[in-house]
Amino acid sequence: HEFFLDLSLPAGLLLFTLIIVVYGVSVYLLSHQLVKGLLQKHHEKVGRVLFRVSASLLALILSISFANQRVNYYKVANSLETEAAKFVALNMDLDLYDTTESENIRSKIRQYITEMSKNNWEYLFNDPVNSKEFSLFKEIYRDVYLLTPDSQMQESLKESMVEDAQSLADLIQVQLYSTRPESNNLFYTTILGILICMFLLSIYKPDRLTLAMATGYTAFLGVVLYFIIMMTSPLEGPLQIKGEPFNLLAEIIENQND
Q1: What does residue 64 show for φ and ψ, rounded to 5 degrees?
Q2: pTM to 2 decimal places
Q3: 28-48 pLDDT per residue, tens
Q4: Among 79, 81, 203, 228, which residue is least crowded by beta carbons within 10 Å?
Q5: Alpha carbon 180 to its chain's center
Q6: Neighbour-count burial of 50, counting CB atoms closer than 10 A to its CB (0-12 exposed, 13-18 middle, 19+ buried)
């Protein structure tokens, strides 16, 4: 997993798919050599039925896993967009609040956005609790709660800002949780599934057409499995989600400073 995260998308996809194809075809050829002297006429019917069931079950498992992982992947992507939007809303409310304390919080928000645009999510992997980004957010969160409104409008603005701060904390938690390593159960299940499917396919003689079909089937499984595995790490690797929302905000801040 870690090795493929360091490769580009084309290189990683090609290498991973090649490994799965070689594994699957090797199992097929080896299994045929082991069973060809034992095959009888009724074995073909049994093997054909079991292969269809096994291949369909494996495809179902991968399709469900792909759909679930895609949802989780875009959940992280959406959290970044929402976080940026929440900071814009919080910054606007602080501008309307119009006190020395609110201006200090706005300054910290600008610092936070600038750091996020530079970081490439490294702080989430390298001791996030003690990172500069997390420290800035904690200060922003605390300072919003410590604001003392002097008017009804400021009271309403503070309520809105507190809600935004709480939402931001939830969004950051989503991103932090996405960096936790996931189990390799699906990978091992797929490897076992390919082993069973190729063993059942070995009742057929490995001519060119059968080899081509076995290669195509295992290649397709390899491609799907590769994208599932890469999407388990949405903030790193070839499918890394970029911080475009924060990059855009950082550009706006830089232009304003100019």
Answers
A1: -65, -45
A2: 0.84
A3: 999 989 888 777 777 878 888
A4: 81
A5: 11
A6: middle
